[in-house]
Structure formats: structure tokens, C-alpha cells
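Exam review. A common question shows you a sequence with its C-alpha cells and asks you to describe the fold in words. Practice with the pair below. Do the first one on your own.
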Amino acid sequence: MEAIYQNAFQGCNQLEYVKVLPTNPPFLFDNSFSNYSVPLRVPKGCKGVYQAAQGWKNFANISDADKFKLTYIVDGAEYKTYEIEYNATIIAEEEPTKEGYTFSGWSEIPFTMPPYDVTVTGSFNINSYKLTYIIDDKVYKETMYEYGATIIPEPQPEGDYQTFKWTDLPQTMPAHDVVVYASYTSGIIEVLMASQQNLRIYSPNGKKLNKLQKGINIVILNDGTIKKIVVR
């Protein structure tokens, strides 16, 4: 090849790179290409010759290297970097993991290493998890929270509660669903006025008790009504 003529590659705006084989640069008109920003791959040791040659010096990125850099960027920061030989098969990096997040995938990765550095990007999407409130073994309310979000406790429901709280409610949402239970006392004055002879008292794990103890008590009245009482 002695020359590449005028307008030979005009309008070829989708070129990823240009590769030439001659060690002696063919004559190139300044308007042979319409896009000189694409990388130019030249034979080993010929970079300087092409940088000084008519037309070819218009290319902003000329390389005769054997290896090029493949960089993975995750969430805007460098994750891993490799030097890979030109035309070698690229094996995609395994997807990273991050608690409370789902990886969104890598951007396009070439099948083989081109004659220029390549940057591949990936990012994470934050996950949401379910917070379930239980009262008397029934679902009271379900709410979705993003991982790490501050949890705003559900207000106490209306009812005849002497005391009420949500047990083991985390301050922020962990990376899993959460179930919290209502701990409350209801009608405690009525219970304390009743004769202990008419009460059956149990611990939360089902052990029969002779009298109320500190903490949570399950009380069954003579009519079969079940009360949960907290003694402090």
C-alpha cells in the first residue's frame, strides 16, 4: 500500500480503532479520515515514525504497545486493573458483592483486547427489605425500607393498653427482612383485682407459674380470656 486517498474513510464515524501493518507509513491525506480521535495501532517500534508522518500525525492516540490496560470501575472507584496483551481473549471479572446491595452488571466488555486501554464500569443498586409488625400473632402492618435507612417506629395503635412497645426493633434496616412483636399490658387493673385463685399464670415459654413474675406474664382468666402482663 502506497497511499490512502482523500475521503477514503469519510463518514466512518463508528470506527473503534484503526490498525495499519506497513512499517513505513503510506501517504495519507489530511481528509482521508473524518475522525482522528480513534486509537491508531501501528507495528511494534513504529510509533514515532507514524507520529511524524503526513496525515498519520493527526491521530491523537497512536500505540505500538503489546499490552493494554483493562480497568474495572465500581461505584466511581477503581476496583481492579489488568494489563492484557493485544488481541488476547478477555475473561470478564466476577461480579463483586456488597451487603444490602445488588450488583447492576458490567458495561460492555470486548471479547478480545483491542489496541487501546479499556474501562469497564459497574455499580450497585440498593436493596429494600420488609419490616413486619405483629400484634397477637397477627400482621398489623408491613413497611419496606432501604438497607441502612433509619426506621421510624410505628405509632402505638388505638386500644386499651396500659403499656406498649415494639420488641427488638432495630434503629436502621439490616440486609434482611425483620419481624417485630408488640409487647403490651392490657386491662392490668382488672387482672390485679381478680383473685389469684381464678388466674392461670404462664411464662412466655409456657411454664406454669404460681404468681406474677418480673417481665412478661401470660395470664388466663377464669372466663378463658388471655392477657399479657409486664411486671417491672
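Now try the second one, then compare your answer with the model answer below.
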Amino acid sequence: MQTYKISNTIKDTILAIGPESAGNFSVFKNGTVYHSEHFGDLLSEDIFQTFQKNMLDFLKKKNITPNIILSDLHPQYKTTILAENLAKKMNSKHVKIQHHLAHISTSYGENILLKSKNTKKDIFYGIAMDGTGYGHDEKIWGGEVFKLYFKNNVLTHERIGHLENQILLGGELAIREPARILIGILNNFLKKEEIFEYIKKYYNQNQFNLLYSQLQQDFNCLETSSTGRILDATSLLLGFSSNTRKYKHEPIDMLEKNSTTPLLILPQLHTHDSQIILDTTYLFKFLINNINKDKKRLAATAQIYLAHGFYEIITQYIKQIDNSNSHPQIFIGGGVSNTKIISDYFESKNSLLNKKIPRGDAGLSFGQIIYFLLTQQK
């Protein structure tokens, strides 16, 4: 259990239960945040029971009864359901925190609230890059850019941009079989028979026909702006990973392991519904057009395209909307920001990444508490 001191006058006692994929919890009381270890994937019932026991034992040992219980926004997460049940049992208020705002708040908490060298600004920006997070529009987010600002000393936010939405063919099955994601992306610019040439090592003709038909009928197809899914599909296309995952981050790990020097490609942005979108179909057109070149350079190209593109969303937004803010303060969060090419890019732009508290879901409960504290009237 890690302990962090935060200057805050809020009298609430808060329990944050974190996400589902990387179980962790945090407790805030009297200006101190207690942040637990990472227990593992809570979809495993044994791990979930261990997580619950350790959390409840900690509350009992410290004689803590929270009056606020925080969870992820996703309504079906085991941690969200647990938070609902505990709130009823403890007569506490249950508050849901959006996944990516919690990631950005983890970085903000470490870099601003736990350090004195960085100055708090009234307006700042956040970039969150991960695999899956439930969005306010009930879609699956994962490549998000926010403007955050204090109004009357209370934090509020605006989603100003994100990755182009792509299709999860078969819903969560596409997370386990990245070729399904690749089919959806390639369908944006290739004919059926052309797509099959890149897919035939993973599905036979009949299997592909069924998947293609499912895509055309929009049956069990979900939209996602996930950074992780784009990198999964890239890793598969370039031949660095297979269509099954031995562990959660395997495709991205293999992509990073096989990356060298990127080729030059400028991010393509467009505006939709007042938000700035980074075009990922354009990235895959580039990869296909250069598929016979050094694939290790293409691996690096995909990562730098995303990092550069996220940064350009903020740059373009400032030029259009907020041109007085020429040196924006930018906080980076989410598990994908652990990749070296991406983290090095953002550090070269003086963006702030957390290094003590995990950037991925293992640090999310800490971010949930920070976000809640920042959004309360002092």
C-alpha cells in the first residue's frame, strides 16, 4: 500500500474501486491517499474475491467507513456493481468516474498535487490512450483528447478530439482476435477480395465470408476510438503478432519490440460534430501502400503517427479556439503511453507523464480520487 499526502480541505472519506481489468483500490481520508497494489484481472473470480477481501480488510483495519464510493462509468464492470452494492450497504454515495478522465487525473495528481515544481494552470489538456473505456456517449473510447479547466475553482472538461471510430467486428471478440478489427479498417478502402488477401492466413474463405457479411449487415458491430485496437491491428498486419493473444498487451508489446526508425507521415485531421478527429484509416492506407518496405520501420511509423496526431489535435484546437494559450500544459495517461516511442515523443514536447503511479489501469483508482477531488466545490 502506497501513501500520498495531498493538500485538500474536503472532509469526505472516499473509497475508489478502480477498473475491472487491473484490480486496485484507493482510499482518501484527511488529506492522505492510500493506493493499493495491482491484484490482476478481476474477471478471474478468485482474484476478484482476493481483491474484495483485501479492500474490506484494509477499511476495517483503518476503521474507515467511506461516505463516497467511486467506480468506473462502465455499468457492467464487476467493480461498478460492487461499488453499487457497497454504497447501499454503507449508506454511501456512489459516483461513477469516466475511465479516461481518471487516467489523465492520475498524471495530474502525480505531476501537480504531489510535486511542487510544476505549476497549476487554470486551463490544461489531457490525452488518454488505452484499449477500452466506456464513454459518455456509451461508445467504447480509448484515444481521447480533453480540454480541462477550472471554473470557480471546480474542474470541468470538454472532449475536443479523438481517434477515428473503427469497428469492433463481433464486439469483444475483436479484442481477442485482432484480425476482426483489421477487416473493419480495410473495408473502408479495399474491396472484399483485396481484404481477404491480408486475412486468409487467419480465416478460411467461408469464415471470412461470414465475417464480411456480418460487417455489411452491421450485426454485433461496435464503434471504438481505441488506441490499443489500432496498434493491435497494426501488429497483426505487419506479422509481429498472431490472431490470438497469450496475454492482454501481447500485440502492442510485439509491435514495440520490432520498431526501429519511423517513415515520414503527417497526421490527417478532420472535424466532425465540433470535435477534431485523427484519421486512422489514412494510416492503414499508408501501411498497405508501403507493406513491402521495412516492416520494423512501419511499426514505428504507426506509433509516431498516433502520438504526433494526438498532439496536433491540441495544436489545431488552440489555433482555432484558444489562440492565447501558446504553451499548453498537457497531461498524458493510459496504458498505451507506456510504449517508448510514444512516451519519448510526448516528453520531447514537454508533456507530463506519471512515472511513480502506473499509467495504465493499475493506477486508475488513484486517478478516480484525484478527479473527484478536483470537481468538488471547495
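Model answer, second protein: The CA atoms of residues 318 and 325 lie 7 Å apart. The mean pLDDT is 94. Full marks require stating both points clearly.
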